[in-house]
Amino acid sequence: MTDLLSLRYPIVQGPFGGGPSTAALVSTVSNAGGLGSFGAQSLAPEAILPLVEEIRELTPHSFAINLWVSTHDVAEAEMTRERFDAAIQRLRPAYEASGVEPPPYPERFSATFEEQAEALIEASPPAFSFVYGIPSEGILRACRERGIVSIGAAATPAEALALDEAGVDAIVASGAEAGGHRVAFLDEAGRSLVGTIALVPTIVDRVRAPVIAAGGIADARGVVAALALGAEGAQLGTAFLATEESGAPPEQKELLLDGTAHRTELTRALTGRLARGIPNELLELANGADAIEPFPYQSYLLRPILQAARDQGRTDLAKLWCGQAAALLRHRRAADLVEALAAGVDELLGRAATTA
Ligand SMILES: Cc1cc2nc3c(=O)[nH]c(=O)nc-3n(C[C@H](O)[C@H](O)[C@H](O)COP(=O)(O)O)c2cc1C
């Protein structure tokens, strides 16, 4: 994997869709010897080329742009104005709690993957990582032709096999401990919850592509464990989310770093798709709304509440994605985290060799 992407360390900063990704975080990680990734899932296609250009100015090294292959759980035509208004009525207590107006019925809820992928191929970043499915043969071929390294994500061994058969260059094995969305695409996310320690070697035994372990890794011990399981790299999300270079609000970073983020829950209530985060008032209000709209509509419906929480520095009505290893977080600077991981891995492997 390090050869494939010319990396000094087999460490990937996981992408963050929907806001917390920054060009500063991506380039800091890539300049420190890892692979920075930008979550572009919520970006308009026309924003992708300027983003790639911006990151290229900040680092000469490899980085990845990440998209979601499936962008709509039901077609936009099914989200009629009547259905939209009914959803707003159900979420009324949540809007009132944060003092915001519900969002307007939009012309479009979200761009499609195909539109975004076309823009991404045009921009040709060094790597393209994706979740929630497998891009078409045409898109993967265009990546190969342009030298864009493709990185797919699997929540189950069956998904890893499908990605391998499609010929992707690397596979992220995403264990159920991970923060953010559960990226299963062949079966329901709730039935695809395999822990990292079981998932990684099961996938390694079955695929040709190099495997990157993700989920619950937050320090050098986790990276060594991933390597011992046969992975060629480790992807960390929550640990990078807490660094000053990430775009997460400061109060969310403090929450992650204060050692209290021990309890996380899986919920569909905040976006319509299953994701892991810290339970709070918003989750209770959204859970209490007795019907959850599919992705991306639930996400769109909650957007003004999340914006207000951000503006007001509140964590009770914010979306607090977080993995299970948050209590291990120590580093506030992304470069320090990469260095600590690299030095810690050397030390642990050296100690193991001495013992042996
Ligand atoms: C706030 C947040 C947003 C995320 N968004 C994405 C995304 O858009 N695409 C993706 O592939 N992974 C996404 N992830 C997953 C991370 O990239 C990474 O795989 C995961 O956080 C690893 O598990 P960990 O949190 O235990 O370190 C997100 C994670 C978090 C915490």
Characterization of the model:
With 356 residues, this protein is an alpha/beta fold. The protein has a domain at 2-72 and 109-248: TIM Barrel. Helix content is 41%, strand content 13%. The chain is built from 15 helices and 11 strands. It has helices spanning 2-5, 23-31, 48-58, 81-90, 92-98, 113-123, 137-146, 157-166, 196-204, 220-228, 238-241, 250-257, 281-287, 297-312, 334-355, and strands at residues 11-13, 36-39, 63-68, 127-131, 149-154, 170-174, 180-181, 211-214, 233-236, 265-267, 275-277. The strands form 2 sheets. The chain has an 8-stranded parallel beta sheet. It has a 3-stranded antiparallel beta sheet with strand order 7-11-10, with no helix packed on it. β8 (211-214), α10 (220-228) and β9 form a beta-alpha-beta unit. α10 (220-228) crosses α15. The mean pLDDT is 96. Flavin mononucleotide binds at residues 14-17, 20, 39, 41, 66, 131, 153, 174, 177-180, 214-217, 235-239, 241, 321, 323, 325.
Keywords:
single chain; TIM Barrel; globular; 356 residues; binds flavin mononucleotide; 8-stranded parallel sheet; 3-stranded antiparallel sheet; alpha/beta
Q: Based on DSSP secondary structure assignment, what is the total number of beta strands?
A: 11
CATH architecture of one domain: Alpha-Beta Barrel
Structural class, from helix and strand content?
alpha/beta
The side-by-side strand order for the widest beta sheet comes to: 1-9-8-6-5-4-3-2
At the fourth level of CATH, the homologous superfamily of one domain is: Aldolase class I
